[in-house]
Amino acid sequence: MTLWRPAERIRHEPTPGRWPTAAEAAASRLFQPLSVGPLRLAGRTWVPAMVPWRATEEGFASASVIDWYRRFAAGRPAAIVVEATGIRDVPSGPLLRIGDDRFVPGLAAIARAVREASDGETRLLIQLIDFLAIRRRPERTRYLARHLEITAGHRERLNAVDADEATVRARLIALDDEALRDVLTARETEALFVGYRERVTDVHRPQVRDLPQTLPGAFAAAAVRARAAGFDGVELHFAHAYTMASFLSATNTRADGYGGSRAGRLRLPLEVYQATRRAVGADFAVGCRMLAEECIADGHAVEDSAAFATEFARAGMDFISLSRGGKFDDAATPKVGEAAYPYTGPSGYECMPSYYSDARGPFGRNLGACARIRAAIRAAGCATPIVAAGGIHSFEQAEAVLERREGDLVGFARQALADPDWFRKVRAGRGAEVRLCRYTNYCEALDQRHREVTCELWDRLDLASAGSRRAADGKRRLLAPEWRESPEPVSGGAPAR
To answer: Do 219 and 88 fall within a single domain?
Structure first.
C-alpha cells in the first residue's frame, strides 16, 4: 500500500549534535529521577508502545515477544510501555491480548524478563486498547452479488422498484464504478472500495450502542490482570484510529450524551479512567496515550486536546503521553483482499514522518502542540507529567524538550528500536557509539504488512551468530546485537558518526 508523502520531498538527516560525557549525562535533566504517580522513575526516558508482531495467533506472549522486551530493558530506559494489548477476548491475530486470565502467565513472563534484564531499574507499563471491527476490501462482484444488503433505495435509484433481488444485483454488477457510486450509499461505497469499518457512531448496532456500558468494566478488568502480572502501571490507549480516540474525535456525533460537544466526547474516556482507577487503586500507575492533534479534515486540534488533557489531569491521571494523527479517515485505498491501514494518509504521516519531508521535517514535529497542552495543564494547577515524543534521537534534542518545558518525559520509539542501548551508551559517555535512526520507516513498512518488526540498521548483521533468532522469512535477525561497553577510556563530547 502506497504511503502518503509531502509534495516537497526534502531530505532530512538526523542531527546527533554533541554527545555528553558521562559526567555531563549524570548531571543532565534527562537522567534525573521523576515521580509518575506512585512510580519513581530513574530518569526521564520513555520507550512508547510499539507493536512488534511477535505474539502468537491466539494472543499469548511467545518466547520471541518476551525476548523483544528483554532486549529493550537491557538498554535501561526509565520506562517501557508494552505494545497495544487487546482488552477483549476476541481473535486479533499476533497481537498480545489481556481479555482473559489465561493471558496473565505470559504477560507475567514479560514483566519478569524486563525486571531481570534491567536489574529492576526499568519500570514497565502495558498499553490497553480496544478496537472496532474492520474488514478487508472485498472483490467487487462478490460483494455486489452476495454481501450488499439490497434496499428500497437501491431499487429506486436503479428505476427497478418491482425487480427481484437477483435482477437488482445483476444491474449493480453491470454498472461502472462511477455510476455505482451514485446508487450506493456513502458507507456502502466505502465497504466496497475500502472495506467495511465500524464506527462509534453506528449506534444502530447494539454492540456499538452499548460501548459506554461495556468498555469501562473491560478496561478495568484488563488493568487488574496487568497488576496481577507484575506490571507497574497501564497506559489507556486513547489515540490514533481506535475506539477511545474515536469517542474523543470531533467526528463523534453520537446523540446519546457520549458525543457531540467536548463534554460529551470526553465522557466515556473519563468513565473508563475512573473505573480503572477504582479497580487498581492509587498505588498503581494509570495514564493515557492521546492525540495532540487528529490531523484530519474536521478533526480536533490542539485546543480540544488541551481541554481533554486538563480534565484527565484533574481526574487524577498519573501521566499523559502525546502522539498525533494516525487515523483511518484519510488512509490510502487498500488493494482487494487487504484492510485499510491508518498510517498511510496525511494523518499517518504526521504520526510517523520519514526523512523525506516538508520544510518542518520529521524531528520534533509534535513538540509545539505538546508544549501548549502541558502549559494548559499547568495553568489549571496540575503537575501531571507529559510524555513528549516524535523523531527524537539525540541527547541535545531530549535535553531541549525538558529545558523548554515541552514535556516532562521524553519518548524514544524508532530511535530505541534502532538502538535499544541508546540510554546506556549516552549515560556512559559513549554517545558516539549510538546507532542513529535514519527515519526511513523501514520498520513501519514491516508493521503495515504484519511482519515481525526489525530495523534495517541491524537486522542483517551477524546472522550466523549463536542465539540470533531469525524472522519467519529467515533473512533477518529479530533482535539488535548486544552491546558490551569496552574498557577503553571515554573521550567525552565526541560527535556521532
So the answer is: yes
**495 neighbors 18 (Cβ within 8 angstroms):** yes
Question: How far, in Å, CA of 424 to CA of 9, rounded?
Answer: 34
> Does residue 46 come out as left (phi exceeding 0), alpha (psi in the -120 to 50 range) or beta?
beta
Closest CA to 433 of 381, 483, 470, 371: 483
pLDDT surpasses 90 at 151: yes
Residue 380 has pLDDT above 50, yes or no: yes
Determine the Cα–Cα distance for residues 431 and 491; give it in Å rounded to an integer: 10
Write the DSSP assignment of 26-71 as a string of letters: HHSSTTS-EEETTEEESSSEEE-----S-S-TTS---HHHHHHHHH
Do 305 and 262 lie in a common domain? yes
Q: Which three cell numbers, joined as nine digits, stand for 170?
A: 445483476
Phi, psi of 209 (to 5 degrees): -55, -40
Beta bridge partners of 356: 11
Domain finish residue from 413, 428, 448:
448
* The three grid cell numbers given for residue 136, joined into one nine-digit string: 478487508
Same-domain check for residues 218 and 128: yes
CA distance linking residue 438 with residue 391, whole number of Å: 10
Are 369 and 402 within 8 A, CB to CB? Answer: no
Q: Which residues, 6+ apart, have CB-to-CB distance to 378 below 8 Å?
A: none
SS3 category, 386? strand
Does residue 179 share a domain with residue 62? no
pLDDT of residue 491: 46
- Residues 483, 421 contacting (CB under 8 angstroms): yes
**Same-domain pairing of 54 and 164:** no
Answer yes or no: pTM beyond 0.85: yes
Helix 262-280 to helix 302-315 angle, to the nearest 10 degrees?
30
In terms of residue numbers, what domain contains 78? 10-133+205-448
In a shared domain, residues 46 and 105 = yes
Sign of CA dihedral 83, 84, 87, 88: negative
Our CA angle for 26, 122, 84, nearest 5°, is: 130
Reported as a single tens digit per residue, the pLDDT across 196-226 is 999 999 999 999 999 999 999 999 999 999 9
Residue spans of beta strands (DSSP E) within 110-253: 123-129, 233-238
- Residue with the three cell numbers 535501561: 76
